[in-house]
Design brief:
By secondary structure, the chain is α+β, with helices and mostly antiparallel strands. 40% of the residues lie in helices and 25% in strands. It contains 31 helices and 33 strands. The strands form seven sheets. It has a six-stranded antiparallel sheet with strand order 8-7-6-11-10-9. A hairpin with a 4-residue loop joins strand 1 and strand 2 (64-67). Helix 19 (542-591) packs antiparallel against helix 20 (597-621), helix 23 (670-686) packs antiparallel against helix 26 and helix 28 (844-852) runs parallel beside helix 29.
């Protein structure tokens, strides 16, 4: 049955959803049979079904659901049972969320829309929360009443969840960065962040230096646990952290990894918990306190020895009683502040601290005294000359020797960090200045700049967008960048962005960006990925591309002028060779002289064949010839041409054929391949006037994705046929024009200049490639690449030489449809002479009338390019009326018949004009007998 008869019933389009609607029983819905459904509903369904967007129309007070294939894919196992059923039954889990909105649309005529809205949906066994962009609008019937609700939806669940995950990841990264920056600013203190779930630690460079391990942002936790020397507490266990029982502030000895030195480490940390109170992160700082520990040991041994050591230290050392009152300070401390021991004892230290820093220091010191914990603080102390300098005070409690450990003393060290603070301030200033320079460039650049996330959502733009494209920052923020691109540029841009996400460092992309007024500007982008962001700078190249287009148009017009001039020259010669002999034959026949007529007929026929050959080459060059591509054994085809090539080349040219063992079968038109090889051989012969060698070789070639993209081919395997000569070669100027039509270096009358053009057109139409390599005096090599046939396709062998006698008909009836009177007369005379009976019409409409009658018709012979209804459409209608009717197409040129396999259905044949009478007769007999044979 004809393809066109599949959609005689409404709705007249393909797809699973359309088929479901088409076969709904009349009692499946309150609407009855489909031909009684409201016209407005049928119109909306006709518009909805072919759409690629997810669309549902909900009809009547029960909101009967009718949807397209795009929406069916999001229904899960509910489809196809939901077609035509009430929405409250189809989706009871989400009905309470949507019922009120549907009522507003159907009863009040409102339009409701939303972006990234959550809905509860059950696609399988369990319900899940999904997110959608949606628009609900009323569908009005012919009398103006609202009959239903049109729902257009786009699911954004993946995008919303990705955005949420990205936000959580960014928050975690910010917290980690804050810890690392704090540690770096502190100097001598390493920051860390322990992920309890993965048991990995993110650490600062100072942390790595303290432990003597290589600098690396992330380390496994046990890498540090192995360095601890405490046999009772090698490391803080993950189980202890999860239970909240592990100590956070500890001191422990380690053996440093790089030099084996024993060092004491002080760790201060805190736990970060999730919304359920479960510990997920431990973060804090570590400090090498070996020096302090050594000092503590010496203090315990002897107060005198400690004070001697304190005098030798560059830092300021002091001690305090259990209540925090200073009872001794080092001489370096007294010298620095310019006060004596007596003036600093007790609470005298307060006189040396900056008034702005005193409240914070006092509060922290009070807490340390109350909790008997270490104290650390930064504050400005006044030097003896009145200058304020930053100091870091670090104080440790020292337990007494009594059994109850009730006696406590305090030992403190003040370290001058003024230079470190100044360096940090200079660094901050440089960061501010660089940020200011970057912002100035962002604001003043004439190029458009943007920053987007991994989903292509715009996060930031510079003012140049409004100047160049009219879009304000408020309009662009949050928009998906792909919405601004020309539809034809979206796919290549997405492919390039995927390469960036895959690790490519940077990319240059050119596409058309929509102006706010709807026009497009051509923009050349430079894009660079950065973690989860994409940074891009675009330059307007519209004027440059338009200038290039005008140049290409000018070059095209020059080429067309050269082409038409060449066609006019050759056709005038050929027409003269046809019309001249015909005129002479008329004159001789008028005089009754018939002798010697054969030579005039031969001359006219020869010119006609040359004209047909010229047309065939023009069609090949323009990639409009009708091809019959099939799998063919390349080596066998070339081997079968060996004798023909040797006769063509002559005795002065040596022919060498070297077939590649793994060449295999190519997919293409065997006759056109042989013609191309013959053309290349003739060109090679003419390039070797003194004789030489012609080498024809074959091989298999594999083009990967990068190579194929560079050559504008599909990646995969190809059969390569190379024709190489030892002739004169080509200059670069000649090589650049080698494929131009009617370009030839041969003397006038010895070549049309279409040989290489035909080879080029055949390669392009076959989805292949042709390349030339040539140098003056070094010969020329032309390589033709054809797609390799798949393994499941069998190659056709070279056809046998010779043909059977001209077949005769047995009175079969042939319907001829041809609008050209001369061709029609010729075909009818041929068929009558072969014993067939004929019916004939001049157009497709008249042919359909005969086909609908009861007249006997055994074969339809029709031109493809008929006025009105074309020959292919006539054949489709004929097959609908007479399913087994064979068809023979005649074509001079058919725009959509470039590949026979794509144009012809089973039982159809094609012959190209001008054709030989014998070929036409055999094709007619083959078509009629094929049907008779299949019937038998």
């Amino acid at each position: 049955m004809s393809t066109s008869n599949q959609f005689n019933r409404w709705p007249a389009c393909g797809g699973e959803a359309a088929d479901l609607i088409r076969h709904l029983p009349a009692d499946a819905t309150p609407l009855g049979p489909q031909d009684q459904w409201p016209k407005a509903l049928r119109n909306v369904i006709d518009l909805m079904l072919p759409s690629l967007a997810e669309i549902v129309v909900l009809w009547g007070p029960d909101y009967l659901a009718f949807y397209n294939d795009a929406h069916a894919r999001s229904l899960g196992n509910k489809h196809p049972g939901t077609m035509g059923r009430p929405t409250s039954l189809n989706a009871p889990e989400m009905w309470p969320e949507v019922a009120e909105g549907f009522e507003r649309v159907r009863l009040r005529g409102e339009t409701i829309s939303g972006r990234d809205m959550p809905f509860t949906i059950q696609r399988g066994v369990e319900s899940e929360q999904s997110y959608f962009d949606f628009s609900w609008s009323p569908v009005r019937e012919e009398d103006g009443h609202i009959g239903g609700v049109l729902c257009i939806m786009t699911e954004t669940t993946e995008l919303v969840r990705a955005t949420q995950a990205l936000a959580a990841s960014e928050k975690k990264a910010r917290e980690r960065d804050e810890q690392l920056q704090m540690a770096q600013a502190a100097g001598g203190i390493g920051g860390f962040s322990l992920d309890i779930q993965s048991n990995t630690m993110s650490v600062s460079s100072e942390f790595c230096r303290i432990f003597g391990v290589p600098e690396c942002e992330v380390h496994p936790c046990n890498a540090f646990g192995r360095l601890r020397l405490d046999p009772h507490d090698r490391m803080t266990t993950r189980a202890g952290l999860v239970a909240g029982m592990a100590p956070l502030d500890v001191e422990y000895p380690i053996r440093r990894a790089n030099d084996g030195a024993v060092r004491w480490i002080s760790r201060r940390a805190e736990l970060v918990r999730d919304s359920e109170g479960k510990p997920v992160l431990m973060r804090g700082v570590v400090q090498d306190i070996t020096q302090r520990k050594q000092a503590d040991a010496r203090l315990r041994q002897s107060e005198a020895r400690f004070r001697v050591l304190a005098r030798a230290m560059p830092d300021h050392v002091w001690t305090a009683t259990a209540d925090g009152r200073i009872d001794w300070v080092s001489e370096s401390m007294c010298t620095f502040v310019g006060l004596g021991q007596a003036e600093l004892l007790g609470d005298g230290w307060r006189r040396t601290m900056h008034p702005e820093d005193l409240p914070r220091a006092t509060q922290a010191w009070s807490q340390a005294l109350a909790n008997r914990t270490a104290y650390e603080n930064e504050a400005r102390l006044r030097r003896h000359d009145g200058a304020w300098r930053w100091h870091r005070a670090r104080v440790q409690p020292v337990e007494g020797s009594d059994a109850l450990r009730t006696s406590v003393r305090w030992i403190g060290i003040n370290t001058d960090i003024e230079d470190q603070k100044a360096a940090q301030h200079r660094l901050a200033q440089r960061v501010v200045e660089r940020t200011r320079d970057r912002d100035r460039l962002w604001q003043l650049s004439a190029d458009i700049m943007l920053m987007a996330d991994v989903r292509g959502r715009i996060l930031a733009v510079n003012p140049a967008w409004q100047a160049l494209l009219g879009w304000s920052e408020a309009q662009l923020l949050g928009m998906r960048a792909m919405r601004l691109l020309h539809p034809g540029d979206v796919a290549p841009t997405v492919a390039e962005l995927r390469r960036l996400q895959g690790g490519q460092m940077h990319s240059r992309i050119e596409n058309r960006v929509r102006h706010v007024d709807g026009s497009y500007r051509t923009v050349s982008w430079t894009a660079v990925p950065d973690a989860q962001l994409l940074h891009a700078v675009g330059r307007d190249v519209t004027a440059l591309r338009e200038s290039e287009a005008r140049l290409r148009q000018s070059q095209k017009m020059d080429a067309i002028g050269q082409l038409t001039g060449g066609i006019a020259h050759d056709f005038n010669n050929l027409l003269q060779g046809i019309t001249g002999p015909i005129e002479l034959m008329r004159r001789r026949m008028a005089l009754g002289r018939t002798e010697g007529m054969e030579r005039y007929m031969d001359a006219a026929a020869q010119s006609a064949r040359r004209a047909a050959s010229l047309i065939q080459r023009l069609l090949a060059f323009s990639r409009r010839q009708t091809l019959d591509p099939k799998p063919m054994n390349v080596n066998e085809r070339i081997a079968s041409m060996g004798e023909l090539l040797r006769r063509t080349l002559g005795e002065q040219v040596r022919l060498s054929i070297t077939p590649g063992a793994a060449t295999g079968a190519a997919f293409g038109d065997a006759a056109q391949l042989e013609s191309a090889i013959l053309n290349l051989a003739i060109n090679a012969r003419d390039a070797m006037p003194e004789g030489g060698e012609l080498r024809i070789g074959t091989s298999a070639v594999l083009f990967d994705q990068a190579q194929a993209q560079q050559l504008d081919l599909s990646p995969g395997r190809y059969c390569a046929i190379s024709v190489a000569d030892s002739g004169t070669g080509m200059t670069p100027e000649v090589l650049a024009k080698a494929f131009d039509p009617f370009f030839t270096t041969k003397p006038i009358g010895q070549g049309t200049g279409l040989g290489l053009s035909m080879v080029y057109g055949f390669a392009q139409q076959s989805r292949g490639l042709v390349q030339i390599q040539s140098q003056p005096g070094a010969g020329t090599t032309v390589t033709l690449y054809l797609p390799r046939a798949h393994a499941d396709e069998s190659a056709s062998p070279a056809g046998p030489i010779g043909a059977p006698p001209l077949p005769q008909g047995q009175g079969e009836v042939v319907l001829v449809v041809e609008d050209d009177p001369s061709v029609r007369l010729l075909v009818l005379d041929v068929l009558d002479g072969l014993g067939y009976r004929t019916l004939y019409v001049h157009d497709g409409a008249s042919a359909i009338l005969i086909l609908r009658s009861t007249a006997r018709i055994d074969l339809l012979v029709t031109d493809v390019g008929l006025p009105g209804i074309n020959g292919r459409q006539v054949a489709e209608i004929a097959r609908g009326l007479r399913p087994d009717l064979p068809v023979v197409f005649m074509t001079g040129y058919a725009e959509h018949a470039s590949t026979r396999a794509e144009f012809l259905a089973p039982g159809m044949q094609m012959i190209s004009k001008p054709f030989e009478i014998d070929d036409f007769a055999r094709l007619v007999q083959q078509a009629i007998h094929s049907v008779a044979g299949s019937a038998a």
